[in-house]
Structures are given as structure tokens and as C-alpha cells.
């Protein structure tokens, strides 16, 4: 088999020095080599896909509501540049007047918005919802002597090293006190980043959170979390609204939204965001009067709700009242869906729960504010007992239920293809 070359293309902007014995190399030649390697690295990064490879977790505590910490990790920026953080970085989000006199040797990292006042004045970080991003950065380190240039006898002192690191920034998603502190601020921010724009099947330009943040986040910045800030303290930290694992960019196609790996990744993120927010509320005991439509007006296609087992009798007569273990966080399932009851309740094998969740990544969201209400069901996971598979084994009933959207019955318009009779 022979190969016939039918065309070629060369990029003059991508050049490496040609090394030849006897050639004089200058700093410009070596810099060109470094730049060429950087271009290759970015191409490899884009082939891998942007996202968090490992780590880069954002941690905070309500006991210290003016600080977050970014843990070590590795990521790939949108432009393909690798991002590597080798140690945890604490970040203080405080007003400048509240910052104590810093140690000149170790100035504290304080987020501030750049102001437009004279002499480069800055303003304090205003209230709002922000995206915490990470990007690669470099700085000079050390000094070394440089010999005189040809034709000169003067020597100089120059930078010795270029040290790689990261920079962390806050990108304003929207501002205002109510945006960060009002009821449902975290849910509204998450829905903005996680909701799809209409029906995916008819929207080939669907871009998920990337469409929301595309105008504010720089090409080298990798989003890590959403932060709610009321001007003096954090109100929430939400990871999965913007955090994603690496995903390879899709080829342009009318039907790309139907087969995109991005949809699967975003579907998982919607599930994880809901579960983390719900369990944080449970851990804080913040479930008084909790209803789905008021707190989570847009639910993921499927999710897991920890419930009191003694409520199962109210859900279905198939169940007796089971005592709930002390200390187990749970919601009032009857109150949670009091405004938006499910269309049906079913029993499923506990072994199928993971497949139910896995099958939901590509499904539409459950918008509890829409009319008519999308059909969804509650699934009670259990293992049948004995020969009667309608009676669940008390010891095998888990303290949770699964909600899941379903399409409803299909309508058969014809039993015979026209013209085939």
C-alpha cells in the first residue's frame, strides 16, 4: 500500500530554533524553544479537556465565615494550560479596614475588587455571588550576574529563575445583598449554572454553565466553586455548580447536544450539587418548613432523600411504622412534597438504585414551578421478603427514597404502518 501526499500546511507562528554546531544561541532563541514547548503543552491539555483532574477542593467553615481554603490539586484550564497547586492556600475575604497590619514578609491573601479611583485605589469586595477561579501564574525568583553584551564592558544583575504557581480570583456573577443573602440565593445561583436552555433536543447551541460564565471568566481561568458573600461573611460555598472533571471539546454538529459527554458530566454535577446542598442543610438542622418548591424549585431528574422510616406508613400502606435510628438526618417527606405531590409511588429492588440515578444524567430537570407539573415518582428501595414479593423485608428497607422524573405513558397512534395492509 502506498501513500500519496495531497497537501500540507505550516504555521510560521510556531517555530523552534534549529540547533547546529557552531551556531550562536541567544536568550531569544532559548525563549522561543520554551514558547514552542508551551504551545505543545496547551495542545495536549486541550486534547485532554478542561476541568479538575484531582483535588483543588474549596473548604470553608461557618465558624470562620470570612475565609476559604483551596486544597492542593491538578487541573487543566480552558486554554489547555496545566494548573498545579502544591499546598493548601487560605484565602481571607474581608474588608480592607478589617485587615490587621500585615507582616511584610508574608502578606495575607485578601480578595479585593479593582476600583477606578485615583492612584490605583481599591474598593472592598462587594456583596454578591462570585465564581472562585484558579489559573496558572509565574513570578521571578532570585538574582544572578549577567556578563557584558558584545561591544560593552558593563555587566548586569538579572532574574535567575521563573517560578510557576497559580493565581486565585473572584469573578462577580451578580451583585447585591439579596443576591447573596436572600432566601434561595444558593439555589438560584446553582439553577443559573446548571439549568439547560429549553429542550436540549431542539437547542444544539446548549452550553450549560459555560454559556453563563463565558463572558466573565478569562480563557486561562478554571472555575472551582460559587461563593455567596454578603459584604462581611460567606453565606454559602457551592462546588458543583461550576466544578467539572476534564471533558474533551465536541466537534461542531447539529446534534452534538444529544451525544455530548458534557451533558453526562453536567448531569452528574446537577445530582451532586443537590445532594450536597440538601445534606448541608440537614447537618445544620435547617429543615424547618422545608418544601421542595420553595427551596429547590428546580430538582435534578433524580435524587436521594433521607427520610424517617416511621413516615413510610403514611406513604404506603405496604409499610408498618419503622423506628428511625437516633441521630440520622432526615427530612419530612410529606411536607417536602406537600405542594407538588409525586404522580406515583413504587417499590424497586435496592440493587437498582445506582442504575436509576445513572440513567438520569441525560433527562430533563424537574421544574416544580411549571404548569403542568412534570411527572415524577417516588421509589422506595427494598429487598422482597420470602415468596410474596409485594411485602418488603423490614430489615432491608433503607432510610431513604429516590425521586425520579418519568415521561409518562406512550400513545400508540397506529398499530399498522400506512400502505402495508
Structural class: alpha+beta
SSE string, helices as H and strands as E: HEEEEEEEEEEHHHEEHHHEEHHEHEEE
Number of helices: 10
- Ranges with pLDDT <50 over ≥5 residues? 96-123, 197-206
Which strands sit side by side, in order, in the main sheet? 10-9-11-12
Summarize this structure as a short list of keywords or feature phrases.
421 residues; alpha+beta; 4-stranded antiparallel beta sheet; 4-stranded mixed beta sheet; 10 helices; 21% helix; 27% strand; flat
Report a brief summary of the structure.
With 421 residues, the chain is an alpha+beta fold.
Notes on the structure:
- The protein has 421 residues and is α+β, with helices and mostly antiparallel strands.
- The chain is 21% helix and 27% strand.
- The chain has ten helices and 18 strands.
- The protein has helices spanning 27-48, 177-181, 185-194, 209-213, 256-259, 261-283, 292-295, 312-315, 333-336, 353-358, and strands at 51-55, 58-61, 64-70, 73-76, 82-85, 89-92, 113-114, 122-123, 128-146, 156-175, 222-229, 234-238, 298-299, 302-306, 344-349, 366-367, 376-382, 400-405.
- The strands form six sheets. A four-stranded antiparallel sheet has the order 10-9-11-12.
- A hairpin with a 4-residue loop joins strand 11 (222-229) and strand 12 (234-238).
- The longest helix has 23 residues, at 261-283.
- It starts with 26 loop residues before the first helix and ends in a 16-residue tail after the last strand.
- The model is unreliable at 96-123 and 197-206 (pLDDT under 50).
Amino acid at each position: 500500500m502506498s501513500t500519496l501526499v495531497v497537501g500540507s500546511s505550516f504555521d510560521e507562528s510556531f517555530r523552534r530554533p534549529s540547533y547546529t554546531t557552531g551556531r550562536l544561541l541567544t536568550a531569544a532563541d532559548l525563549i522561543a524553544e520554551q514558547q514552542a514547548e508551551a504551545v505543545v503543552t496547551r495542545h495536549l491539555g486541550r486534547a485532554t479537556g478542561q476541568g479538575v483532574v484531582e483535588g483543588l477542593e474549596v473548604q470553608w467553615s461557618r465558624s470562620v465565615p470570612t475565609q476559604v481554603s483551596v486544597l492542593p490539586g491538578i487541573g487543566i484550564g480552558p486554554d489547555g494550560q496545566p494548573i498545579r497547586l502544591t499546598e493548601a492556600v487560605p484565602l481571607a475575604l474581608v474588608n480592607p479596614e478589617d485587615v490587621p497590619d500585615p507582616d511584610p514578609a508574608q502578606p495575607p491573601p485578601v480578595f479585593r475588587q479593582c476600583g477606578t479611583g485615583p492612584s490605583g485605589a481599591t474598593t472592598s469586595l462587594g456583596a454578591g455571588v462570585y465564581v472562585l477561579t484558579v489559573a496558572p501564574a509565574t513570578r521571578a525568583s532570585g538574582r544572578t550576574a549577567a556578563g557584558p553584551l558584545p561591544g560593552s564592558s558593563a555587566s548586569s544583575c538579572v532574574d535567575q529563575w521563573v517560578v510557576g504557581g497559580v493565581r486565585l480570583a473572584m469573578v462577580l456573577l451578580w451583585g447585591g445583598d439579596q443576591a447573596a443573602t436572600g432566601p434561595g440565593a444558593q439555589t438560584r445561583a446553582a439553577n443559573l449554572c446548571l439549568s439547560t436552555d429549553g429542550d436540549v433536543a431542539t437547542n444544539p447551541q446548549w452550553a450549560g454553565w459555560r454559556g453563563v460564565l463565558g463572558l466573565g471568566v478569562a480563557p486561562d481561568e478554571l472555575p472551582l466553586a460559587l461563593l455567596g458573600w454578603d459584604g462581611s461573611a460567606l453565606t454559602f460555598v457551592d462546588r458543583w455548580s461550576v466544578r467539572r472533571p476534564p471533558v474533551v471539546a465536541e466537534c461542531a454538529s447539529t446534534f452534538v447536544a444529544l451525544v455530548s459527554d458534557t451533558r453526562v458530566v453536567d448531569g452528574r454535577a446537577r445530582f451532586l450539587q443537590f445532594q450536597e446542598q440538601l445534606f448541608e442543610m440537614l447537618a445544620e438542622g435547617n429543615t424547618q418548613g422545608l418544601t421542595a418548591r420553595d427551596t429547590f424549585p428546580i430538582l435534578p431528574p433524580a435524587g436521594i432523600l433521607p427520610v424517617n422510616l416511621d413516615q413510610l406508613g403514611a406513604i404506603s400502606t405496604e409499610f408498618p411504622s419503622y423506628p428511625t435510628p437516633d441521630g440520622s438526618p432526615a427530612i419530612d417527606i410529606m411536607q417536602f412534597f406537600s405542594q407538588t405531590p409525586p404522580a406515583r409511588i413504587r417499590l424497586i429492588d435496592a440493587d437498582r438504585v445506582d442504575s436509576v440515578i445513572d440513567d438520569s444524567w441525560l433527562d430533563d430537570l424537574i421544574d416544580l414551578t411549571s404548569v403542568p407539573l412534570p411527572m415524577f415518582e417516588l421509589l422506595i428501595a427494598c429487598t422482597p421478603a420470602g415468596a410474596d414479593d409485594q411485602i418488603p423485608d423490614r430489615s432491608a428497607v433503607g432510610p431513604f427514597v429516590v425521586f425520579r422524573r418519568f415521561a409518562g405513558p406512550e400513545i400508540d397512534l397506529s398499530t399498522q404502518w400506512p400502505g402495508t395492509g
